[in-house]
Request: fold
Amino acid sequence: MNQKRKLITFDWAIKRLLRSKANFGILEGFLSELLKEDLTILDVLESESNKDHRVDKFNRVDLKVRNSQQDIIIIEIQYDREYDYLQRIFYGVSKTAIEYIKENESYASITKVISINILYFDLGSGSDYIYKGSTRFIGLHHHDLLELSEKQQQLFKKDSIESLYPEYYLIKINRFNDIAKDTLDEWIYFLKNEEIKEGFTAKGLKEAEEKLSILKLPEDEQKAYEHYKDDLRYQASMFESSFGDGYSEGKAEGKAEGIEEGKAKGINEATKNIALNLVREGTPINIIAKVTGLTESVISNLQKQKAS
Reply:
């Protein structure tokens, strides 16, 4: 195995290759290592974020699959810093949970949803690089864990209340120190470095190395991939410079007006700078509004001010 062979990124693979049943083994390997169970994918479900144009770099990669237990798994890959990201994944999971239940079905038919988030920015405050969120009910007086009754276990075909509710996985790629201590770490190493080291044995990685090699892509796909990587670098540079300028200005003002107010102004200025950069790129105003959260009238005013 060639230790230096560079592979295409996981988000590109999801868009181009991993949506095919012929390549499900790669996804099944990653999910099996993360969820600590042998997992089989039945099919790929329709998803709302499968765009391939320039504005796509501001959209998350969103892949929905259904496994053999009829659970729905959402995989999102996010490069941009989002302060309300936790609320966004909660919304996405909630929407998915009720999307697949019919009006005449009982609540017992609500689908279990697993949200897997591969993040290339630092979300929240914490030193680990993998976090799992789940729902449990703890007694306020006796501190005991509420369990399913025997009849409920038969009805739901689950052995715990926690297994009924959504699960969230946050993988903070940039926190990983590149030391693979187990097979899941081997996958995270690949997600961070786009390569697979000799001796890695995690499920799906051998198949990933065979099918995700840049050199094995047709020439037109190689060019498209390089263009995509350039877009990501441009996006990162634009966001960081805009955020840095706005935050610095806001922080300076914060000395006189208060730290929190200064930070808020910094974030606001960063958002406006991003909007202006998108205007220069020829991005439609309605798309800019969706990306930044600014109103179309505010964006139009910014455009006029810049031109004057």
